[in-house]
Amino acid sequence: PSELATTAVLAGALDRVAFETRLGRDTLHACTEGADARWMAAELALMRTRIDTWLGGLDAEPFHVLAHDAESLSVARSGAGLVVELERAWNAEARLASAHVLARRWIGGLLRFEGDDRWATLGLARWVALTRLSEMGLLSPEELATDLTRHEAALVLYDATEDEELVLLARSTLFAFDLAARRGNGDGSLRALLLAWLAAAEDLRGRVPRERLLADLADDAPRFAAWIESRESTHALAAGPCVRHETGVHRRFTWGFDVPRPRDALGAVVVRGLVETSPAARAGVNEGDVLHDLRGDSNHPERPITARRGERTLRWPAFDRQARGGRWRVVAGADPSRCAEPR
User: Fold this and answer.
1) 311 by DSSP, 3-state: which?
2) 111-248+327-338 — its CATH code?
3) Ramachandran region of residue 64, left (φ > 0), alpha (ψ -120 to 50) or beta?
4) DSSP labels for 58-94?
């Protein structure tokens, strides 16, 4: 994006980069082999500036990010900044996780509704993160479709009681996209509603009343209740001009036992925590087995898992549950610059 090229570098090294943005100085302290610290710092500075100003924020305090390698991806707030733990690289998944936390700084910190308002800090913040990253050119239409499909899968593969927050994230994200696409741009857009709710929360110095929320949603209030509160089985019908809804089969990936991370450096895996009803157990894997060359791909659960136990090669399905549900695909010829809600 052009804004990255025009961001002024104040200081730069392989492990420390500082940028001057419209909101102040952003500094990245990196201890990672999975990312170019200079490019990562530029993208994070642009994300914070775009999200904060888009939400009406004027946080001009110095912003610090600490990034380091870890066994799994994690992004969390820490004082006036973020701690980013990178599993593999600075990629679309890491960008989205960082943008989501940045959006939650404002929505979670300033906006409260009567009752359980996690749908706002989860779904609304996710919508802000996805649309702003798309607008900045940091999220491709394919990556947008992948994330929406992941939420659709959560609705049919996970239990709303046992995996409550995962399912609530999925429902509220899809509701936000559907609502934004139906309302379009202008005074009644989802962004206009969000800014009005932020202003109301500030004026009230507390939680926005449920009556105000439902009144502002107007004709969409019954759909809100069905999606978020009643948790009926439903799906989004619209999510902007770049992706289209269809149906397909979802499969939930599982090893069937505890697998240490990262696996790349492991010569063998000792089976611990075997789920007795899992496909692995049905294939003959036992607690305490030593497996070599364990191979499986969570992004492709349709492909079987294979492993070697002694001289024998074992093979079993990589999923423990499958169901039909919504999926999203990129519209042929879609202009990536139009994926986000118009400013």
Assistant:
1) coil
2) 1.10.390
3) beta
4) ---S-EEEEEEE-SS-EEEE-SSEEEEEESS-S-HHH
Whole-angstrom distance, CA of residue 270 vs CA of residue 12: 44
Angle at 140 between CA 134 and CA 144, to 5 degrees: 75
Sorted by sequence, the CB contacts under 8 Å of residue 125 that are 6+ apart come out as 100, 103, 104, 107, 108
User: pLDDT-derived band of residue 262, with 50, 70 and 90 as boundaries?
Assistant: low
DSSP3 helix / strand / coil % (the chain, rounded to 5): 40, 25, 35
Lowest-confidence range among 105-109, 268-272, 328-332? 105-109
Sign for the CA dihedral angle at 182, 187, 192, 196 comes to: negative
The size of the chain, in residues, is: 343
The pTM for the full model equals 0.86
In tens, the pLDDT along 70-82 reads 888 999 988 778 8
> Looking up tokens 């202003």, which residue turns up?
199
Numbered ranges of CATH 1.10.390 in the chain: 111-248+327-338
CATH 3.40.1350, the chain: domain bounds: 2-90
Q: Is 122 helix (H, G, I), strand (E, B) or coil?
A: helix
- Three-class SS of residue 309? strand
pLDDT tens by residue, 223-246:
888 888 766 656 666 777 888 899
177: nearest Cα among 218, 238, 232: 238
Q: Quote the tokens at residue 147.
A: 């994330």
Token representation of residue 244: 């289209």
CATH number given to 2-90: 3.40.1350
Write the DSSP string, 186-250.
STTSHHHHHHHHHHHHHHHTSPBPHHHHHHHHGGGHHHHIIIIIS--S---S---TTEEEEEEEE
